[in-house]
Amino acid sequence: MIQTQLYIDGQWQSPIDQGTRAIVSPADESVIAQAAEATRADARLAIAAARRAFDGPWRQTTIRDRARLLNKIAELIDRDAEKLAHLESLNTGKTLTESRTDMGDIAATFRYFAGLVASESGAVNEAPHHVISRTLREPVGVCGLITPWNYPLLQAAWKIAPALGAGNTVVIKPSNLTPLTTHHFTQLVAELDLPPGVFNLVTGGAEVGAELAESLDVDLVSFTGGAFAGESIMKAATGNFKRIGLELGGKNPNIVFADADLDAAVDYALNAAFFHAGQVCSAGSRLMVEDSIYDAFIGRLAERLPRIVIGNGFHGETQMGPVQSAQQHEKILGMVQAGIAEGARLVHGGKRPAGDVYKQGYWLEPTLLADVTADMKIAKEEIFGPVITAERFRSEEEALRAANDTPYGLAAAVWTRDLDKANRMSRALRFGTVWVNDYHPYFPEAPWGGYKASGIGRELARIGLDEYTELKHSYINLAPKAMGWFGA
Ligand code: NAD
Which CATH class is domain 1-247+453-472? Predict the structure, then answer.
């Protein structure tokens, strides 16, 4: 049985009140680990350690030291990639193939930020000859990093790499449903003999996250998760006007025009919606298809859905695992029922698959709800499960209006062979990422984040590093002379 601990001030330790939480396999509901469940008191210790480390010698590290650190972490991730991928699949239920891809992306993220950090240099500004004016980038300070359960280590990496790379100290709080890979990652960091307090792990629930958001000793909070927690973090952050980054949910339209390559569009419509059983913030669960091809498109999806292999993520033939928790399972089934009650047509799925192996665990069939209209709850709210809702549209204008008519703005996709239309739609869709004739790719080099209620700020790319820095104007007068302005 795996047992996890907290990592505070360079020491592995149990929570002050000895709290633990059983971590359950989504595939069969067996207990796979006992995780340390921290409280606010533990979070305060971690924050204090991070504060001391930031105010101490860590500030003297050079960009070379920090670039080397990130590259070293990437090497350790490569070394333990198989172990980490197993833990991620065990804890989240996702297929091993997906977890292996995550680990490759995580190592790439650390290497990308290592390169960026190494190339970082301040600017010397034009100024009078007796003045040295420089623009300097400095770390923000103590960073509280709060991550969700769907991509536990990937989301952590998007935050940890730039935070450490920019010279900050870190307190990370993974979701208390999925702490295992972040715990193993911390073991890797512990191999590196960083000064105590530079990197701290506090596993626990909302109260630990809330402490990070409220603490006057935390300078920045970067959060990935749902709108409810995001809102409370934003409010709490006003206590010391700490910097915040919020990566929130999405309601992401996947828009298929009649002139698209339909073989590819059908195939990717499944990938967009059922990757990681739809538990992806950018999942293309809101399918919008042009009227003239709508019925044929739904027919082609209906043929494919029963062939999707649902199973344990460790089995090689599995294409889709379970959803992560009992709560998600119940919520998704509730959303499907709400859709049917509002008049959507259930084409496939909407229930637990038949068979003894699916009796335990949080299994769902891939689900297709057709004849959905833009006013239905299932077209407006994030479902976060293996469900496609399919709407019909008659014109480019109608598709655009309906797609943008959502409080969210994370990701969208457009399928067409008409380059002019592709460009028009790319520009007019109010989403942080717009794919054309593809779905899901992201790169460390490209920014990730949402418009509107999908969040504040961006991760990845240069801006993903800049968010962890303060910009300073340093002005040095080399030859001060009295001005005689006042009362001379
Ligand atoms: P969640 O909001 O329930 O929890 C996220 C994290 O916040 C967890 O660590 C949780 O313990 C913590 N938390 C909960 N309440 C808190 C509070 N009041 N103060 C501080 N911390 C608190 O989200 P979740 O269910 O773990 O994740 C799913 C959500 O995350 C979905 O909405 C999904 O779209 C979103 N998400 C967004 C992105 C993105 O890049 N935009 C990526 C992944 C997931």
Answer: alpha beta
Percent of the chain with pLDDT over 90: 98
Q: Answer whether 173 contacts ligand 1 (Cβ < 6 A).
A: yes
CA of 324 to the centre of ligand 1 (A): 14
Does residue 224 register a pLDDT over 90? yes
Catalytic residues: 247
Residue nearest to ligand 1 atom 26, measured at CA:
148
pTM over 0.85: yes
- Tally Cβ neighbours within 10 Å of residue 357: 14
The Å distance, Cα 180 to ligand 1 centre, comes to 17
> Quick check: CB of 410 below 6 Å from ligand 1?
yes
Q: Is the pLDDT of residue 120 over 90?
A: no
Looking from the CA of residue 146, the nearest atom of ligand 1 is 9
Query: Are 349 and 366 within 8 A, CB to CB?
Result: yes
b or e along 3-28 (b: 16 or more beta carbons within 10 Å of the residue's beta carbon)? ebbbbbbbeeeebeeebebebbbbbb
d(CA 148, CA 340) in angstroms, rounded, equals 29
CA–CA separation, 157 and 462 (whole Å): 15
Determine the pLDDT at residue 372: 98
1-247+453-472 shares its CATH topology with 251-434: no
Q: With contact defined as beta carbons under 8 Å apart, do 203 and 145 qualify?
A: no
- Per-residue pLDDT at 121: 80
Rounded to 5 degrees, what angle do the CA atoms 58, 41, 4 make? 75
Q: What average pLDDT does the segment 362-367 reach?
A: 98
Q: Report pLDDT digits (tens) over 288-311.
A: 999 999 999 999 999 999 999 999
Question: Rounded to whole angstroms, what are the CA distances from 59 to 24, 49, 137, 212, 309?
Answer: 40, 14, 13, 21, 51
Mutation test of ligand 1: which of 21, 150, 252, 383 has the most ligand atoms closer than 8 Å to its C-beta?
150
CA 415 / ligand 1 centre spacing (Å) = 30
Q: What is the CA radius of gyration of the chain?
A: 24
| Residue 147 Cβ < 6 Å to ligand 1 | yes
Which residue do the tokens 């913030």 mark? Answer: 281
* Domain coordinates in residue numbering, the chain: 1-247+453-472, 251-434
What residues have CB less than 8 Å from 308, skipping those under 6 apart?
270, 274, 319, 320, 366
482, 484, 487, 488: CA torsion to nearest 10: 90
CA of 146 to the centre of ligand 1 (A): 8
CATH superfamily, domain at 251-434: Aldehyde Dehydrogenase; Chain A, domain 2 (3.40.309.10)
Tens of pLDDT, residue by residue over 327-362, are 999 999 999 999 999 999 999 999 999 999 999 999
Cα-Cα-Cα-Cα dihedral sign, residues 53, 57, 62, 64: negative
